[in-house]
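Long-time lurker. I teach an intro course on protein structure, and each term I like to show students one example going from raw sequence to a predicted 3D structure in token notation. This year I'd like something fresh instead of my usual example. Would anyone be willing to generate the tokens for the chain below so I can use it in lecture? Attribution to the forum is fine with me.
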Amino acid sequence: MNLIVGVAGRILVSKNYGLNLRQLKHTLPDLPYDYGALEPVLSAEIMKVHHGKHHVAYVNALNQAEEKVKEALAKRDVQAVVAATKLMNFNAGGHINHTLFWEGLTTIKDSGEPNSELMSAIKKDFGSLEMMEDKLSAKTIAIQGSGWGWLAYDKEMKRLQLACCPNQDILQSTTGLIPLFCIDVWEHAYYLQYKNVRPDFVKAIWKIANWKVISDRYVKAKG
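-- Reply from a regular --
Happy to contribute to a lecture. Here you go:
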């Protein structure tokens, strides 16, 4: 029986513990807009730091962690594998979560609104779009320390759900929920602009939610 360790099956150890690690490296994704495009909600300065410094740090650390896992597996050092895998999973979460975050944002003028299918689901599960935004904002603001607030789809229950994940935990792998939209409340996401007033940042982020992308994710999640 094969043992899969790490991100999306990229590290594969066969039953005789031989190693086959694909050599593809993770890279920082380009943004679908300029750094200044999300102003005044998110300044160009904070976007440069958040994307160009913090996100790239997760990408680099993920690549390094995968190499450490590879080396530990080759040495059959189980403790080193566990330690490196923990580091790899954390940075993989940072990479995946930020990629979903960037894709879920757009300019104020292009924000739009949910398509009819998603809007109907929002009204059914939360009462209204405003009520859903208020509920997710409240849950996200209340996160202790760092983490993410999520609008998600529960495929088993066939309904929308709201969720929060600490640190860089990956929503789908930890809860089974399919991510539709996320709000980053690590301080690096807002502190340069909003200081310690997290509620102002969370409430403002809805002005640049990319409802076309979110709606497309919903349709795909429903299958």
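Some talking points for your students: The radius of gyration is 19 Å. Residues 1-21 have pLDDT under 50 and may be disordered.
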